[in-house]
């Protein structure tokens, strides 16, 4: 069945009768949300960890026909959630052909729409707007003007058309009117200046706009959604109180609650499926990568107000795989299998994503990143160790044993070096880090065990010496009250 192309044809279609005719965007999204729930359709595909927390709150806001704001730290999928709101819109809606504000053919709001219908009647041309073109997103920056959002007088239009500047036909509409009958979102709302925010809540409540002092009534039909970072409230700006009062729901996002959820997100988002060689990532390597972010989020040297983005483990995993890929190409190995050493090679993917407190700044971002990797490895190792005995391994180092393995050595060479340490390979097999038939993964498992012992300070690790006996704690000199003047 062909789509109506004129107002007359549209009057003979289902669009001329309720519930399609006169339905607002909020009513449309509410109806589609209810249908998705009834059919048990995916609500926000690809969003992991929000199924029982954030997603129900967004659905509640849609069912209540509320505008809402997503409030959360960086890297919590706020923008992705907003962009998936288009799935709650109809496939297409009719608009007046040539309308800049997506005029409803039955009830146009612009002067252009009224004059077109009056002039053409049932022959008024109708276009169809897809759901993807009904979504408008704006990143808030301090230089955004009211003309960008609402609109401005266009003197060229006035001169060419012979109109007075006060005539609505001389207006150049901003993003907000052009998003009419769709979804309008603003990222980082507090970065908008106060006067722009005032313009927003006036549209939300009254539908009145003044452009260059000329009153223009535009009863826009919009679903408004925003994002904000709590840091913005105290750093760069704030949300004005009347606007906050008009936003129906404030939804607070969060980081993954468990390492398993974090791993699911990271494996979904990280680009590790390279075409050059076969890539196999041991599960404990994925755990260590994810644990880095969890350790950073509870580290007192890392700024809690800034947060630790989920982009950190994603970037670390991609960089670790890249280092393993580089090694495989250099030494002509067929498989790419990341090791703990490859995670250390991903330091640049960590240091740039940490906002440090004063104590952290004194220590330096690279030193803290190395400590986070070691602690993450120690966390994964201790969870897997159980009641296994590491005494023979520690004793070998205590008796003067030392081991240094290059990060670019072949797996067979590394494994030969690790066999020198009594009980190390046996422990790797007993903890099911790798089967005896998989030497490359066994190398990664050996590195995890040694890194875990270093994290527990049962052995020492340094870039220069490799793994060696634990350094003895320096005793506090008598009568020093804890101060060391050496």
Integer tally of domains: 2
Number of strands: 15
Radius of gyration: 30 Å
Helix amount, in percent?
40-55%
Report the span from N to C terminus. Answer: 89 Å
Shape: elongated
Class by helix and strand content?
Answer: alpha/beta
Give the neighbour order of strands across the main sheet: 4-7-10-1-11
Are there runs of 5+ residues with pLDDT below 50, and where? 479-486
CATH topology value of the largest domain: Rossmann fold
Q: Tell me what the CATH architecture of the largest domain is.
A: 3-Layer(aba) Sandwich
Strand content: 5-15%
Total count of helical runs of at least 4 residues:
22
Written description of the protein model:
- With 486 residues, the protein is α/β, with parallel strands linked by helices.
- The protein folds into two domains: 7-252, P-loop containing nucleotide triphosphate hydrolases (Rossmann fold), CATH 3.40.50; 259-469, no CATH class.
- 43% of the residues lie in helices and 13% in strands.
- The protein is built from 22 helices and 15 strands.
- The chain has helices at residues 7-11, 25-39, 54-63, 78-83, 111-120, 146-149, 155-161, 175-178, 194-205, 230-234, 241-246, 259-269, 283-297, 311-331, 340-344, 348-351, 358-363, 365-385, 391-398, 411-418, 424-430, 439-455, and strands at 68-71, 92-96, 126-130, 135-139, 151-153, 171-173, 182-187, 208-211, 214-217, 222-228, 249-252, 278-279, 335-336, 459-462, 466-469.
- A five-stranded parallel β-sheet has the order 4-7-10-1-11. Strands 2-3 form a two-stranded antiparallel sheet. A two-stranded antiparallel sheet has the order 5-6.
- Strand 8 (208-211) and strand 9 form a beta hairpin.
- Helix 12 (259-269) packs across helix 13, helix 12 (259-269) packs across helix 14 and helix 20 (411-418) crosses helix 22.
- It is elongated.
- The chain starts with 6 loop residues before the first helix and ends in a 17-residue tail after the last strand.
